[in-house]
Amino acid sequence: MGAAPTTVATNANTTIGLSVLEQATDGVGNVFSAGINNQSDSKLAYTNGTGNQQIRRFYEARVTLTPSSGTFDLDLTTILDPFGNICNTSKIKFVYIKNRSAAGGGTLLMGAASSNPWVGMWATSGAPTTVKHTIEATGEFFASSPNSGYSVSATSKTLRFTHNGGSSGSIVFDIVIGLI
């Protein structure tokens, strides 16, 4: 691709859609429905910058974990944007994880690593390597702090992903992080 660009502008849109419909039929055939649809009110646009609802860079990767490889530690202070620029982040605005394993596949465990554990999204109490979230096969995880962001520092910077060992197959997952 050549030299990394010196000026980068980043914009993002996040949408969380949830639509649920439940139907019931009474003894004479009448159908009753109840549901919710929040697909229009769970959208957020991030513009380029370092303020509220802004990001400066993003990181994305597809990672494969085998039962034998076990873990993937992501140092948030050294991640690269798609152009190869070091992001030098101090705040994470959103994190999206998608476990691409087929139904019945392995569960992805996400938490802070034992060395310089990133505790930005979680309370700092408890063991740093405690699993904070499990993401089952085909599952997704999304967290955002669009205004203040989740802090990253030299001593709070490493996010760990672990294969739970519950399946013999690999876990393939995607990571997208919006940051300033």
Number of strands: 14
Stretches with pLDDT under 50, minimum 5 residues: none
Q: How far is the N terminus from the C terminus?
A: 24 Å
Number of separate helices: 0
Q: Largest sheet at a glance?
A: 5 strands, antiparallel
Annotated CATH topology: Jelly Rolls
Which class of secondary structure composition applies to the elements?
mainly beta
Assigned CATH architecture: Sandwich
Helix-residue proportion: under 10%
Q: What multimeric state do the chains show?
A: single chain
Rg over alpha carbons: 19 Å
Average predicted confidence as pLDDT: 87
**What percentage of amino acids are in beta strands?**
over 45%
Architecture overview:
- The chain is an all-beta fold and 180 residues long.
- It has a single domain (50-179), classed as Sandwich (Jelly Rolls).
- It has strands at 12-15, 19-25, 31-37, 43-48, 54-55, 57-65, 71-75, 91-99, 108-112, 131-135, 140-144, 150-151, 158-163, 171-179.
- Strands 6, 8, 11, 12 and 14 form a 5-stranded antiparallel sheet that branches. Strands 7-13-9-10 form a 4-stranded antiparallel sheet, with no helix packed on it.
- A hairpin with a 5-residue loop joins strand 2 and strand 3.
- The protein is globular.
- It starts with 11 loop residues before the first strand and ends with a strand.
- The model has no long low-confidence stretch (mean pLDDT 87).
